[in-house]
Amino acid sequence: MLRPRIIPCLLIHDGGLVKTQKFANSKYVGDPINAVKIFNEKEADELMVIDIDATRQNRPPEINLLKKLSVESRMPLCYGGGIKTVEQAKEIVSAGIEKVAISSAAIENPGIVSQISREIGSQSIAVVLDIKKKSFSNKYEIWTHNNSINTKLDPIEFSRKFQDQGAGEIIINCIEEDGMMSGFDFPILEKIYGQINIPMTIMGGVGSYTDIKAAIQKFRYIGIGVGSLFVFKGKYRAVLINYPTIKERDELYV
């Protein structure tokens, strides 16, 4: 039976694990390999790893790091960052990663989504849309290259477009909520969710288990990407990797 997925999201910057706020002010929080080992022990549903430098620095994915992560991981892994070609997507899957996530490459060339889907299967490709509300408006726009380029494209329209191109999942990341731990921006997420019929994952804003439960109650079958809540603890934001126990997850799913 389908059920919600609670997904730790690990950001890689200069080879280390970091956490950001609104895609800026990165704070080093540890070693990514060690984090994978801890989430193994906690039996996480899935894991998302994003290299936030790769696209902006115009460099390819670091396959050696991905191989190390896949060897350590006992949970499904999704990787994003620097993927621009079908060959890179195939290489990443061959390295043991279950799912590739593309962003700017899909915006620049929507046809690459269908190309990758044909090669590795739609279940193995997700499109990430980093979105932000337009100033003095209720409209949202897609940004790329780690919040440095405004495409001025509508995320609702392009979620449908990428679904039609063969994406197996749409990942919506709300830039203004990133790392703020103040809850989800539900109105825009609901609009997008209502327009697609493939799996969707939402990111940006989780500050408590209450936020996770609210998302599950609203969307039922949803992926919930979580960053700060699973790496920080307490009001002083001490670094402590954590994840809900099986009992706590069962309570969230009810």
Automatic annotation (TrEMBL):
<comment type="subunit">
    <text>Heterodimer of HisH and HisF.</text>
</comment>
<dbReference type="GO" id="GO:0016829">
    <property type="term" value="F:lyase activity"/>
</dbReference>
<dbReference type="InterPro" id="IPR006062">
    <property type="entry name" value="His_biosynth"/>
</dbReference>
<dbReference type="InterPro" id="IPR013785">
    <property type="entry name" value="Aldolase_TIM"/>
</dbReference>
<comment type="similarity">
    <text>Belongs to the HisA/HisF family.</text>
</comment>
<keyword id="KW-0456">Lyase</keyword>
<dbReference type="InterPro" id="IPR050064">
    <property type="entry name" value="IGPS_HisA/HisF"/>
</dbReference>
<comment type="pathway">
    <text>Amino-acid biosynthesis; L-histidine biosynthesis; L-histidine from 5-phospho-alpha-D-ribose 1-diphosphate: step 5/9.</text>
</comment>
<keyword id="KW-0368">Histidine biosynthesis</keyword>
<dbReference type="InterPro" id="IPR004651">
    <property type="entry name" value="HisF"/>
</dbReference>
<dbReference type="Pfam" id="PF00977">
    <property type="entry name" value="His_biosynth"/>
</dbReference>
<dbReference type="GO" id="GO:0000107">
    <property type="term" value="F:imidazoleglycerol-phosphate synthase activity"/>
</dbReference>
<dbReference type="GO" id="GO:0000105">
    <property type="term" value="P:L-histidine biosynthetic process"/>
</dbReference>
<comment type="function">
    <text>IGPS catalyzes the conversion of PRFAR and glutamine to IGP, AICAR and glutamate. The HisF subunit catalyzes the cyclization activity that produces IGP and AICAR from PRFAR using the ammonia provided by the HisH subunit.</text>
</comment>
<protein>
    <recommendedName>
        <fullName>imidazole glycerol-phosphate synthase</fullName>
        <ecNumber>4.3.2.10</ecNumber>
    </recommendedName>
</protein>
<keyword id="KW-0028">Amino-acid biosynthesis</keyword>
<dbReference type="InterPro" id="IPR011060">
    <property type="entry name" value="RibuloseP-bd_barrel"/>
</dbReference>
